[in-house]
Amino acid sequence: MRAVIFDLDGTLVDSVYAHVLAWQRVLEEAGMPIPAWRVHRLIGMSGGLLTRAAAHETSREISEDEAEALQKRHGAVYAELLPVRHPLPGAVELLRHLRESRIAHGIATSGRRGDIGASLEALDVPSDTVVVDRTDVQRAKPEPDLFLACQKRLDVPPDQCFVVGDAVWDLLAARRAGMLSIGVLSGGYGEEELARAGAYRVYRDAAELLANIYQLGLRS
Amino acid sequence: MRAVIFDLDGTLVDSVYAHVLAWQRVLEEAGMPIPAWRVHRLIGMSGGLLTRAAAHETSREISEDEAEALQKRHGAVYAELLPVRHPLPGAVELLRHLRESRIAHGIATSGRRGDIGASLEALDVPSDTVVVDRTDVQRAKPEPDLFLACQKRLDVPPDQCFVVGDAVWDLLAARRAGMLSIGVLSGGYGEEELARAGAYRVYRDAAELLANIYQLGLRS
């Protein structure tokens, strides 16, 4: 295995719960009340798909324009709820280890550049780190496009890439991209939810992954 | 089986994610940064135990006074993050069904009266509903005291009571009280986390429990 592709929210940065509360508030304002735990299980999908899923759960229909407006509003509420982004335990150290070991790695997120800037800063990664975001592909997770775009930029074939993510959407997109996946609990999913969705291993967080990195057989 | 004892937050009212974010913010202000998913797994414990758990995770010590101040501050931030409380799907209907069927039931929560008032109002329960809160017992969950106090007020022996809860702390306290327990996913735990902690059955939420209530063999 020669590369590691990371999800961002809930995997490297402690932002899932703020995303949940922000989405729940925005959806409720729009007449689509969804229980928080259901919103939690939608985080990690593209914003467009998330708004459509919410519309479906509340038996409504929404236009493209409305979906776009909800995503903008979500970005504002999210920034208000979480003005400072914190890396998850071990995230900064894990990325540093990969850099120093010259193991190919990148970040692939359903988030948009405007929403993720503060998170990338918090991770203290150099500006030449490979980052693929929502705006780089036509379809975000659970479509495989984000991971495939990242793998191409890393120049490593899919079957030599690990995906690390906290949500079933990461694991689903990884399978569709022909990549092995590793789950982390730091986004709040239970271990079995991730294992069932196809995670090859499940670690508590980036720190536990780093402590066990030789289990992954990575080479530079 | 002759009685059902409900947890409140995450079981009847959609408040867990706001509790998580509120606790995380308060703990961080106090120099105890804890990832949100770890805070999530502490919700449902007594506030005192939660603050001690957070202190332990960050290798700190806190005094009783400091723990008390943190709980007060949490109550304020929580109310700010969640000004309106929403019942979870099926919660109002399930409680109404039990009233109309004359099946004994009550609510037992680690929350304090000041923090839970708005939640009880949202559930639209009559004022004579049995509610046991943090201030009624010496020790909250995972000690069995809350459930035992509720069972005594309902005048039903423990082995004829079901506990319904969203957190492992409910299930642990139920076992210690000699009661069977039922898990609900509406607090954001995974199904297997609840089943492993001893839940006799796990339903999606109060609505699914109500739809399957005859599986529980309750009588008035």
Please characterize this protein's 3D structure.
The structure is a homodimer of 220-residue chains. Chain A is 45% helix and 11% strand. The first copy, chain A, has ten helices and six strands. The model of chain A has no long low-confidence stretch (mean pLDDT 96). Chain A is globular. Chain A has helices at 16-29, 36-40, 47-57, 64-81, 91-100, 113-123, 145-154, 168-176, 191-196, 206-211; strands at residues 3-6, 104-108, 130-132, 161-165, 180-184, 201-203. Chain A has a six-stranded parallel beta sheet, with helices on both faces. Chain A has 220 residues and is of the alpha/beta class. At the A-B interface, helix 1, helix 2 and helix 9 of A face helix 1, helix 2 and helix 9 of B.
